[in-house]
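ASSEMBLY PREDICTION REQUEST
Request ID: AP-0331
Submitted by: J.K., bench scientist
Number of chains: two
Total residues: 748
Priority: normal
Notes: Please return the full assembly, not individual chains.
Input sequences:
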Amino acid sequence: MGNYRANLVICGGTGCIAGGGAKIRDAMQAELAARGLEKEIGIVMTGCNGFCAQGPIMTVYPDGTFYEKLTPADVPLIVEEHLLKGRPVEKLMHKDPVLKRAVPAMHDIPFFNLQVLRALRNKGLIDAEKIEEYIARDGYMAAAKALLQMTPEQIVSEVKASGLRGRGGAGFPTGVKWELCARVQGDVKYILCNGDEGDPGAFMDRSVMEADPHVVLEGMIIAARAIGAHKGYIYVRAEYPLAVSRLQMAIDQANEYGLLGKNILGSGFDLDIEIYQGAGAFVCGEETALMRSLEGKRGMPIPRPPFPAVQGLWKKPTVLNNVETYANIPPIILNGAGWFRELGIEKSAGTKVFALTGAINNIGLIEVPMGIPLRKIIYDIGGGIKKGRQFKAVQLGGPSGGCIPKELLDTPVTYEDITQTGAIVGSGGMVVMDESNCMVSVAKFFLEFTTDESCGKCPPCRIGTKIMHGKLKDITEGLGKPGDIELLQDLAQDIINTSLCGLGQTAPNPVLSTIKYFRDEYEAHINEGWCKAGVCRPLTTFYIDASKCIGCGACARVCPQKTVSGEKKKPHSIDQSGCIKCRSCYEACKFGAVKIGPGSLKQKLLEEAEAAKGVSE
Amino acid sequence: MPGEARKLTVEDLKRIKEEHRATFTLREGGYRAKVTVNMGTCGIAAGAREVMNALVEELSASGAKDVIVTTAGCGGLCSREPMAWVEIAGQPVVRYCDLNGQKIKRIFKEHILDGRVVEEYALAVGDETSY
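STATUS: Completed
Returned structure:
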């Protein structure tokens, strides 16, 4: 296909050909040749375009004019008027622009229209490796304003007035943190960025660092100016190699352009930024542990106070903010605190980025105004639950957070409302779970994570999480005892009250919130030996309900053990002696005929089968 | 940059901004079309490199000089990666999803060269709401 001035796309589907489409093409070729336009205007025959009733049809590109019910007699008119004079022939045009509607507009798709991109404003738009593209999108303009037109006090008060709270999880007001540090006297201060994102299922910060690394640098320049720091570190885990390389490229470019280094933009202000790669310990996301790790020591937290704003890295006043927090700073400086507060509500101003994942149709990175109900996120933006299953819970805040059940789906996403439910907004991981998730196993998964990641410094966390994990493991293996639930709750309270840092203080949350909302599941595990989701194998027996089975054989085909058998169109059955409880038959059945029974059912069914065999012999 | 480091002033920033706006508003840059392949970790894992390679191959084979091919980070809808955004001067952006090398080649021929949106691969048209 050459580069024509215009292209005529004539439908060559059966319907249109039957209606005379080929004649239109021939007439058009002749007409174009007669007027010497054949080198300027191309003709393409396409397959059926689905609009057969209006055929023969033809679309003129680049303008997209859609002609319908054409006859060869119309051709000279179209060439004369439209192709030569540029005036589309109205009377031959379709009245309803169906072609334009075939692809929905962004603002008609809930996944996009409920989002407002602030921290992610350059998402998928700019080339992360070209500083010029960032600058073209107002990049470094906020830094210029902060360095040349504002005093440090003005920066602090603007950020304070915006109501921005730390996006890393704790939600501490960013402006207050800066103010504390700005007030401390000292010629050496540090500005740090926390890119040690570690929650299972969370990828907000990674995406920002990969897609828009300069925004992190610009946020840090503004913060450094506010507190009077001249040295900055970005702490990123080494598991994020793409983020590390793009950040390094951004730092090099900024240094080259004088946007970092000495006398930035001629303001007399100096700032150097370096990347420090963490080894991936979860606890290093905690601020005091992160600073120890930066100092080259073992990543362990220390008691606060003194707070890092007073005594942080190398005992110097230090401010540490999260990646997303920094991404919010430049627009606040450019547009003002009032603008920032236009979205969100009261104590939760602005927008929040979430990593939406799990049993949901649209998995992705989203940014929504704070205060939006969870239901809108899950059903409108997320497009609901996969495979038409039932929603069970949404997990917010990762290993420090909790599960929110369907009764509370109308909870607005604000720091306070989410905390009320027993979860936390956290850094933004949002894992959706459906009926096939066992909540005891979910709690066990998170406790396994925190037990592994506990740094071991304080006993409540080191030993407490281990014991809690052991109890949960027992419960999922059919070794749970009455009283275990209460013991877990007791232990949880002690760990929360006595742990040194945020890791231990929040580690029991996934257990507490699942007990709070899904106590019946814990009880079924302990008292009935039954995992109703069919996840915990010792507490599960898969069997076929003969009244629902139509004998399609779908289950037999997927069984890796070949233990499902039966005649075609007659109810099938599972040979319990060979079943490994892999769930394949359960997932394959479209009629709900494969059922999940308690673990003890297996023995009963085996005995029944044995007895039946005896009778038949 | 070889030799003396370039020290930008605010005036330089504004100049760069104006110059490079052209890549966002195609007409001013003298380009007819721009293809942005989302290459965040999610995109790359889903096969964005194959898409990129196929696109570059197709571009050089066509000899088109008025098409920009560029990359960006995560486009947001990770479950539909690889994604690419196609913008033809004067028309709203079309966002394609679930791509592979074959599909992007077809998009290049039909949409970029011939101006016909490949509807079956398209997710949406238009812009997102940024502040």
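REVIEWER COMMENTS: DSSP finds 25 helices and 19 strands in chain A.
SIGN-OFF: pending second reviewer
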